[in-house]
Structure formats: structure tokens, C-alpha cells
Write a structure and sequence with these properties.
Blueprint: E1 48-50, E2 53-55, E3 61-62, E4 65-68, H1 87-96, E5 101-107, H2 108-115, E6 130-132, E7 137-138, E8 144-145, E9 151-153, H3 168-181, E10 185-192, H4 218-231, E11 238-242, H5 269-283, E12 288-291, E13 297-298, E14 318-319, E15 344-346, H6 367-384, E16 391-392, H7 403-417, E17 421-424, E18 438-442, E19 451-454, H8 456-463, E20 475-476, E21 490-491, H9 493-499, E22 513-515, E23 518-520, H10 563-574, H11 583-589, H12 600-610
Parallel strand pairs: 4-5, 4-17, 5-10, 10-11, 11-12, 12-15, 16-17, 20-21
Antiparallel strand pairs: 1-2, 2-3, 6-9, 7-8, 13-14, 18-19, 22-23
């Protein structure tokens, strides 16, 4: 949720990416049988990063366009509004309205209860669930009262007696299965260490006690995420993990505030996030790792300034941002797990003036002024310079017909034009400083009785940023087999790439129709140009093994080391049959642990050379 604050990943541009238009090898889905399509249990929907974009297993680009649904982070231990609606009714409508991924806030405390075998029970204040009678009964007149006649609402969340709520771990299993049923993907967000409806106000990922007095430490935070990652490693409904919601705190708070630097201090978010990412990827190398920013960074205003120094009225040592929005430190200290960066997604949060009157709103702001005054150096450079994908994990606000609505429109359009993933805050009506996409929910005692009143003006603004085809407006899901929704409003990935991508295309990049292997058109960037990468030949090591090497890193044999070389490696790693490399290309590309064959790490090394993190290739030998 929100905030009041003062104010590398790898790879290359997909504009010239051969992967982009790769035709899927999956069979086409018959759109006439959408409602009867089987649930996808193939575990084939995992995603990976190349440059600033995300791709499926076939090298087809995807776009995560979704919303937040909070509640599991709170003391009810289930998504809010299941006390006013049925899970199937809600998810069916959410999917039919084009939301292809849901970010579920949760607490470390709740996952810890699951891991320890003492799962918290879903609170009756958080969910209305009944199945009455629980079994067929004699009506006393020779007839039968069918099970569920009097009550059939969220029935999967009650025990055999038809009224006792199940434990929260079982509830989450059911929620994921229901998401799968409707073609929706999900990821969790560690919203706070402890279960607390206001837990988002706490700065760090450690240092709070649970209800039983257990102190959540950095090690416990990592251990619980590893546990849940391993539990769901064969269920691609849960695509990934947002490691911590909005690490924040102001510089003068010192060790009580999250910082981003090169230290191994416990409050260094970059160090903690890298440790956690590595531990998760050890058990599930396919999971996406969403890493948020911090609140403040050191400004470099004066020599000798340090984290914890008192603020100054003039020439401040700190640069502020939204909670979770500051990635200035990532330029010098990117998140680079030992497994490489193909699963890393940076996830800023951004809000408008109705949440807080930041200085960059103190003018007749435009997209360009927002880029100049705040967005670019704080987070947008990551996408603009093809360092890594981004997902705006939270954005949204009230429809005021004025400045806040203007800001939402500008950010929405920027995300559409620059292929930035996002999850809107939020579905819930009970977010005090933003409101929700829902205006009201009510239901009777039967599935099918849920009435969702959508905030239609807000949804209309948001809806344009959902991934959809250009002419027919079909919403595009992230599952290869299961279309998004059940009422013929959505498509599976397979159906989109086989039947729509080369005809009407989609709204990605502001409008993209694939022709052969090239996307078109790619709009000209409005942001500042990145510094050109070096193209000169690196020094050849005198001990270079293998006579086939012509230029270390030159995978495509262009005579230069460029981002396309990293892309060629990733293409080959994803599908060697479709993107083969000859002996010279393979020899040139083997720049990390030279001699052990090609992997994501070789692409990382090339990108590190291009961005001057290392000065020569190969990076190492076996």
C-alpha cells in the first residue's frame, strides 16, 4: 500500500530481437471451445527476461498486466471481499475483464505458520463460506434436499461440516487452483514481516515479532520464501515472488531504514535481495524474482556524506522517492544473483499527487517533465536502457478529474508505449488512499449471486493498459493452453501467437503487429538516450583457449561486442534447435567459465562488459 515520503541485470533491446516473433510449437486453441478448455497442468508457462522484456519458453514476448488483491497480509488471512462474494464469481469476472496476473500481498508470519505446520485459520471476518446442507438429506416427505441447497458460497473453503473455515494454507492452494481455472497467473508479495492490516508502514523485511513472539529475522524471511518456492516449483500458476513490499525509511534513520549500496549490512536491501533471490532460484530456477526499490538514496552532494548523516536544509545528502520506488543505487549495485539475471524483474511503485504532493507535481507536469524530474533517473532508465524488465507493482489512485487522473493517464500511456509490466493498486474498495477498481460487492448465499459494481470510469482508464489485440479487443493471457476467462473475451498465449500476432497484433509497444521475426512499429523513445556501449575489440588474453575464437563475446560475428550478442546466447539457451550457433559463434560466446559450455551466465558477462562492469572478456576460465 501507500506511503508518505520526501521528496543490472542484463540483456538488450527486443526491438531487433529474433526471439520476438518466434512461432509457438503448441497447437492452436479452438476459440469456440474456450469455456470447456482443460486446466493447464503442463508446467510450461514459466517466463524469463531478455533485456527489458519477458518471454515464454518459446521466445514469444509476454506482457504482465494485472492488479493487486490484498488481504492475506492482514489478520483475516484471506483476500478481502470474500466476505461479500464467491471466489469463482469474482475470478471469472476479473479474468473476463482482462486481468492476466494478480499480485497477492502476504506476510512472512503467515508463510511461517504454514512452514511450521501450524497454519492460521481463515478468519470468519475475512470470508463468508457455507455449504448447507453439507450432504444430501431426507426432507421428511420422501424427497431429498440436495447438498448446498440453502447455502453454496465459497464452499471449497469449509470443512466437511459445511461451515467450519479451513486453514489459510489450504485456502491459498484453492485460490491458486481457481486462478488456474480462469487462466490467471499470480505472484505473491511479502507485504510485511508480521500479519498486520497496517504492516506496510514498517520499513524493513526483518525486526518484527509474530503473534507467538517469534522475531522475524532476515534468515527467517529467506527461509520462508525458499519453502514456498519449493512447494510450488511445479505449479506455474505462481510465476514468482516479490521479495518485500516497499522497503523504506529515510537516511537519517540509519540502520532502521532500508538503503541500497555495496555493503553487507543487514539493512542493505540490494545485498539482502540478492541473497534471497539466489536461495529461491536454487530451488526453483524458473521463478521470476521481483525486486522493489527503496525510499531514499545518497545524493553525493558533499564529499564524506554517509547513510545515517543528519539531513540538511540545503544541499541535502539524500534524494527521495516513493516507498519502494528508488532504484538509483541499482546503477552501481545491480541485483546479479549467481544464477544470472534472467529471472530478475525490477518493480518500482509510483503514485500521483492524491497520495502525496511530491515536488515533481509542482508544475504543469507532462510525461517529459516527469521523466526529467523523477522517473528516468529513479527507475525508468532500467527499462529505457534495456538493463532489465520492470513491473510497476503498484500504481493507481482516485479519479479526481484533475491532477491525479492526469498523472495516471500519463503513466499508463508510458507503460503501454514502453512495454512496462504492471499491477494496478488495487481491486479492493477498502484502500483508503486510492480506492479500488471495485466500487462495491454483495452476494446472496449461492455461487452465482455475487454482484460486483465496478468503478467503471477508473476501470476504463486502466483497461487500455491491459494486454489485448488491436482490432477485436481480445485480452491476452499468460497460459499456453487455458484462455483468459471463460466467456470468450480472452485468449491463451498459443492462440494469440498462432492466430492474432501476425494479423491484428496487440497494444504492446503502443501497437505491435509481428511480421516474420520482427515487431513493428517500435515507437521512438521519448526518454533520454543511453550512453553508447563500447564497440572496440577487448584485449585478447594470451592464454585464450580454442583456435576458433575470433573475438571474445562476438556471438553474431559482427566484429563488435553488442547487446545482440547477449540476445543470441539467450535465444540459443531457450531453444537451440530454433536458434543454432556454429562453432565460431559458440567459441566466441563462451566467456564465463570458459570451457563449460553456453549458459545464461555468458550473456550476463557480455552485458557486464558492455556496461563497463568488467573491462575485458572472457570473464573467467575453468
Amino acid at each position: 500500500m501507500k506511503k508518505l515520503c520526501k521528496g543490472l541485470a542484463v540483456f538488450a533491446s527486443a526491438g531487433a530481437l529474433a526471439l520476438t516473433g518466434a512461432a509457438s510449437a503448441m497447437p492452436a486453441v479452438n476459440s469456440d471451445s474456450v469455456a470447456h478448455a482443460a486446466v493447464d497442468d503442463c508446467n510450461d508457462d514459466w517466463l524469463h527476461a531478455v533485456g527489458s522484456r519477458l518471454y515464454d519458453k518459446n521466445g514469444n514476448e509476454v506482457w504482465l498486466t494485472g492488479a493487486n488483491w490484498f488481504g492475506m497480509n492482514c489478520i483475516e488471512y484471506s483476500p478481502h471481499y470474500l466476505y461479500a462474494g464467491d471466489i469463482d464469481d469474482i475470478l471469472e469476472e476479473v479474468a473476463d475483464r482482462g486481468i492476466n496476473v494478480i499480485r497477492f500481498p502476504i506476510s512472512t508470519e503467515l508463510i511461517l505458520s504454514w512452514m511450521n505446520g501450524t497454519p492460521y485459520q481463515i478468519s470468519s471476518g475475512g470470508m463468508q463460506a457455507v455449504y448447507n446442507p453439507p450432504v444430501d438429506q431426507d426432507d421428511g416427505n420422501g424427497g431429498v434436499v440436495k447438498a448446498g441447497t440453502y447455502g453454496n458460497l465459497n464452499k471449497d473453503f469449509v470443512e466437511a461440516d459445511g461451515k467450519t473455515l479451513i486453514t489459510s494454507d489450504k485456502g491459498f492452494d484453492i485460490i491458486l487452483q481457481k486462478c488456474k481455472d480462469y487462466g490467471i497467473k499470480a505472484f505473491i508479495d511479502i507485504h510485511s514481516p508480521h500479519a498486520d492490516n497496517s504492516g506496510h508502514n514498517y520499513n524493513l523485511w526483518y525486526g518484527k515479532e509474530t503473534a507467538d513472539g517469534t522475531m522475524v529475522t532476515t534468515d527467517i524471511w529467506i527461509e520462508t520464501l525458499v519453502w514456498i518456492a519449493e512447494k510450488y516449483k511445479n505449479d506455474d500458476t505462481l510465476l514468482g515472488f516479490d521479495l518485500k513490499n516497499e522497503p523504506h525509511g529515510k537516511g537519517p534513520e540509519g540502520e532502521k531504514a532500508a538503503k541500497w549500496d555495496g555493503s553487507t549490512d543487514e539493512n542493505n536491501w540490494a545485498y539482502a535481495a540478492t541473497r534471497c533471490a539466489e536461495a529461491i532460484l536454487d530451488v526453483n530456477p524458473n521463478a521470476l524474482i521481483f525486486v522493489e526499490g527503496v525510499e531514499q538514496s545518497l545524493s553525493g552532494a558533499q564529499a564524506g556524506d554517509y547513510w545515517g548523516i543528519a539531513d540538511r536544509r540545503d544541499n541535502s545528502p539524500y534524494i527521495g522517492a516513493w516507498w519502494g520506488g528508488n532504484f538509483r543505487g541499482a546503477r552501481e549495485y545491480p541485483i546479479v544473483p549467481k544464477q544470472g539475471t534472467s529471472q530478475i524483474v525490477y518493480s518500482p511503485h509510483d503514485y500521483g499527487p492524491s497520495v502525496y504532493a511530491q515536488t515533481w507535481f509542482d508544475k504543469d507536469f507532462t510525461t517529459q517533465t516527469l521523466l526529467d524530474d523523477y522517473w528516468y533517473d529513479t527507475w525508468a532508465y532500467i527499462n529505457a536502457e534495456d538493463i532489465a524488465p520492470e513491473l510497476i507493482g503498484e500504481w493507481g489512485g482516485h479519479m479526481d478529474g484533475a491532477e491525479n487522473q492526469k498523472w495516471m493517464t500519463l503513466l499508463r500511456d508510458y507503460m503501454i508505449e514502453n512495454h512496462i509490466n504492471h499491477t494496478f493498486w488495487c481491486l479492493n474498495t477498502n484502500s483508503g488512499d486510492t480506492g479500488g477498481l471495485w466500487a462495491n460487492l454483495s452476494c446472496g448465499q449461492q455461487r452465482g449471486s455475487t454482484n460486483i459494481t465496478w468503478a467503471e470510469d477508473k476501470y476504463a482508464l486502466f483497461e487500455e493498459s491491459l494486454w489485448q489485440t488491436l482490432k477485436t479487443g481480445k485480452y491476452i493471457g499468460l497460459d499456453h493452453q487455458k484462455p483468459l476467462g471463460i466467456n470468450n473475451t480472452g485468449l491463451s498465449l498459443t492462440e494469440f501467437y498462432e492466430s492474432y500476432a501476425y494479423t491484428e497484433g496487440s497494444n504492446l509497444d503502443g501497437g505491435t503487429i509481428l511480421t516474420g521475426n520482427e515487431p513493428k512499429p517500435t515507437p521512438a523513445p521519448t526518454e533520454p538516450k543511453p550512453t553508447p556501449a563500447p564497440t572496440t575489440k577487448p584485449a585478447e588474453p594470451t592464454t585464450a583457449p580454442g583456435s576458433k575464437v575470433t573475438l571474445w563475446g562476438d556471438t553474431n560475428k559482427s566484429g563488435e561486442i553488442e547487446v545482440a550478442d547477449a540476445i543470441a546466447i539467450m535465444s540459443n539457451v531457450v531453444n537451440a534447435d530454433l536458434y543454432p550457433l556454429d562453432d565460431v559463434s559458440s567459441a566466441n560466446a563462451d566467456v564465463y567459465q570458459n570451457g563449460d559450455g553456453l549458459s545464461v551466465s555468458d550473456a550476463v558477462s557480455i552485458q557486464k562488459y558492455i556496461t563497463r562492469i568488467i573491462s575485458e572478456l572472457p570473464e573467467s576460465y575453468l
